[in-house]
Specification:
Length: 464
Amino acid sequence: MKSIIFLGPTMPVEEARAILPDAVYLPPVEQASLLSAVTTYKPDAIGIIDGLFGQSLSVWHKEILYALERGILVYGSSSMGALRAAETSEFGMIGVGEIYEMYASGQINDDDEVAIIHSSKEDGYRCLSEPMVNIRKTFQHALTRQLIDSDTCAVLIDIAKRLYYPERVFQNIFSIALTKGILSDETINKLKLFVKSDYCDLKKQDAVKLLESIRDIPGDGSAATGNSNFTMVNSHLFKALYHRDRTVQYEGTDVCQDNFASYVALHMPGFDDFNFNAINKALVVFMADYFDITASEEDIEEEKGRFQKKLGIQDKDELNKWIGDNHLTPEEFNTLINDSARCRKMQKWFMTRQYLVKNVKIVLDELRMRNIYGEWLSRAVNQEQIIQTHYPDFKEIDRLDVRELLIDHIRHTGWKSDTDAMKWAEEAGFAGLQHLHLELLRAKLQRDHINGLLSAFLKDKGNG
């Protein structure tokens, strides 16, 4: 059972490990961190204890739904976990402990009941204020011990509740009570000693229960899984969170995808063309959606085969490794291939509209835009001059078939394709195999002529 625990000031990680030693312990949850943990660690169970708010955006409910929809058990207690469990329990999140029950029953409602300020991770998340739930529980315990009466208990709780949560420390509560004449010096001194000896750490108690609950999940697979009886709507905001704010991990370091893409934009040579083409592909996918263009299973399998051939991926294990290395789920990879197949289908439709001109204008315009038109024109003219001068009648046209010419072309140029010759010829703008045969022959005749000249030159030089 692989589990992830989001933990901060509620209890030290060392104490948590004594209860649940095999879990991965992460800092307090914030927006996008639960989503990142799901895709990075692929856990069976998640425990949310502590979370950030104010200084960072809080964990979003849809992140929890995303995990639940995938069958992951999500537990919550103590602090942010108790809040989110009360809010999403109907979807399958499991609340643990007294604080969760208080939120779920409506006994408490405010976020500030569990809010505190604390030091940094490097300083051990040391608490710098007291959570309201612990203050209330401690004063109620003092009432039970008859250290104060019920009216005094109610007044002390009210004083604490009126304080801004970063200012909630017992010293401030006692100072206000003394100033207002609610408590005597003697009672305050007794309460100070009581707080030191009998402080009720309700948040920690609930955290322990959560860790024990995850620890005691049966390892035989008989435990209930997260709720998948609903379909989460992938809104525009959630897509932004998933594709922009989520982190991926490489060599033990987490990097936000937004930062990753920004780095590429600033450092990749030729990024402008790369970005232009990437957006164009996304636009084609958008248009395919608009026109309800779908790819058949045969189209998708063919596209997958072309993809694997292009990257040299030989088998399923290599493909799965590539998917993992590129931080995709199998479903996301299938979507990527499906989108590519639909793009190709859109291109094929477009090329039927260009039946006579084919892609000649498209290719030449792209050469112009890349400022390499002159370079390639010079090379093409060089071939044309050789053909017109030395092979004007193409007497060798029936000497080799297309397959033999392709093999020869590949051997001499390194050219390769991820599909069969007929399909490639169609996509590249050739008017069938006969046209491809003719152009391959012209290319071979040029090579043969140049190689003949080179051989003659080397022979003369050797004789000289």
